[in-house]
Request: fold
Amino acid sequence: MDFKKVYTSTKTYIILLIAALALLLFIASMAYKQIIRMQESAETVAQTLHVYNVIGSLTEHYTRADSEEFRSELLEDSYLSHALKNYKIEGKIVLDSLKVLTLDNHLQQARLEPLESLLNKMNNQLHVLDTLNFENDQEFFETEEVQKNKIDKTIENIRVLKNQMLANEKYLMQERQANYASYKFLAPITSLFLAFLALFICVLSFLRVYKNKLRLKQSEAFLRNILATTDNIINYFEPIFDANEAIVDFKIVYANDCNRDYLGLDPDVITGQLVSETFPFLMVDGEFKELANAYNDQTKVDFEKEVVIDGKKMWFNCLATPLTEGVLLTARNTTLEKESNAAQQVFKKRLENQNLELLDSRAFLGNIFKSISHIVMHFKSIRDDNGKIIDFEILFANERISPVTGDLPQDLKHKKISEAYPEMIEIGVFDKWVDAVENNTPVQYEVPFLSNNNQHWFRATAIKLGDGVTLTARDVTEEKKKSDELIKLNEDLTIQNSILSDAESLAKIGSFVWDMESDTSELSDNFYAMLGCKPNEFKSSLQRYKDFVHPDDLELYEKRGASILDDSETAEHTYRIITKQGKVKHFKSNGQFVTKNARKVMIGVVQDVTESIEAEERLVKSNLRLKQSNAELESFNRVASHDLQEPLRKIQLFISRIEDREGEQFSEKGKLYFEKVTNGVKRMQSLIKNLLAYSRIDSSKTDFEKIDLNDILFKTEDDLATRINDSDAEVLADKLPKIKGVVFQMEQLFANLISNALKYKSLNKQPQVEIRYKRVNATKLPDKFVTLKMRYHKITFKDNGIGFDSQHAEKIFEVFQRLHQKNEYSGNGIGLAICKKIVENHNGYICAKGNPGKGAEFIIYLPA
Reply:
């Protein structure tokens, strides 16, 4: 058998061949590129030389124009001489050659345009020289000299351009020669390097082929050893075809020694024989067809075969592997495995029965775990090198754990407690588990657990099992809540009883429960105290309570008691009692009927209203006195309105007449006295008018209406326009709110405050009145004012006048109170008192702030 064909692969050699061809192509391409570059470099050098030659021709061309011989020829020749025509053609040929040769040089191309212009210019100048013909020799020579100078100048410009082009070509020549030298040097080196590289790869390929040949020999020897020592039958068959190219049999090409060991067939004898003759059992159950399919389809085929040798059954696991020219059949003896499998089947059947019993037990136990409401878990102890328990591993958890912690039992399995529930270590539950294991005693405890932001309480029992602990926990949150609620309820009842007792004492109230059938009652401690007795000093009943009722009210009290018994209806009743100490008090009682222990009872309260009744009597007397005072005040108003003002009007009338008739005859002192009388009458009239205004402001709310303070301010400014303009004052105001109030009182309030600011203006400042508004909470108001609303309108009148000392902030709102002398500022001290009364009439508050020389602020708070 040729083992090289069976086990040797040709991929390595194909790869080496492709690499060698690629390298040859690479070397050829590199050499070709080097030759092309050398050619290109040589061509550029040749081109530069050609340009040199053409520039030389250019030099020769313009140098000829500079020669005296050529110029003389032009002068002696006829008009438009043949020499000049040839000269122009030569110049054009040189210029065209330069244009063609410098197409790849933009700088040279740029110089050719001015060069062409200069050549044309020189040709024209030569043409002029050629056409000179003067009769006067002196004039001819002068003109000739001028024209030659022009030609010389043009030739000089051409020479400059030529030198520039020559310098540029010289630089290009140096650069191109350097490139050519580089390519000339690199071409042989590159070729030599690539040749050595190709030689190196060829040597490397040879070493690789040689090494693979040695490895192939080693593999062949190794494979022979394996085939000699293997426990498997290994045979190699080559197919035999009929005329239709169909496989009709296989020829045994190779057979190892295991054929002798298992089948009693000598490998040397069966080699070269047919499979149908040597292994007839392969022709029976379709194995021959499997071998043919393996070869035709080039796929591996695996099948089992039972063989009887010398009356003994043997089993083989066969693998047919297609190779290049045949099929390799490997047969592994599985007789022992089959016999072992049979024994295992018996054992497996027995084990399955036991497992079924165990599954029934586990299902029963699982149903128990599912049906109970307890959480059941089992932990295995994790110990350190010293045997100390440092953690627990979760081995089991029933499904009741999921609603509490959100964990699935299968996810918790084999997790450590420190990872799954680290809080158990922090709150000390871990130590209780350790005690249960180490001391072998059950441990019971209660533990809180936070789940979904809700705290749950669990009552748990930890019992040692092996080197671990079994935990059973029950949710006692509701029990805990009910227990806590009961404790809290008892505490609340104790507090409420204490509060009720204190409240009864403070409110002078007593409570009672009256059982009408047995005529017994229960009185509160404060009820006894209201009667002047100690708690439970006497056994209370309706008959016993009558001893405290005032004799004058006893008959009415009995009638009310009988009515309650007959009609079972209660009503509020006020009567007098006489305490144990003989003090008369007024009691007001009320109650209602309820059922207690299947008996109809009356529960009620009794209040000591003695102070209320006495206060009511005092209020009645005060009302009578107030009505009398109001009547007197109304009488005063009538007197002030008519009787007091009438004499003043007459005095004012006669003063006016005296002043008109006798005023001019008065002395200076008489005029002063007369002026004081006039001012006194005016002040008296103003005082009476303000007193009437003050007295007419009442607190009735019948004329309140919705008013816009912005309209009030506009009307006030209109009324005071003359004073504002005379004072050159400025009034600045925020947008004001709408309130419920009396229109004329708000007008008077605004007018008094603005007038007050104008009156007490500073002498060295422009008067300015600022009216600011803000909506504030009731908590921002002064403590001395009792607020009735949650929100208030804060309106501030601020001026920059003379101001006042803050210690007089309360005094200025009193009637007839003034901070200045009459001769300093006019007024009678009633204006701010009127403002205060108006604000209070609107359930508001007014206060003032001031600093001498810095102005004053009047702050008004009105309900929002």
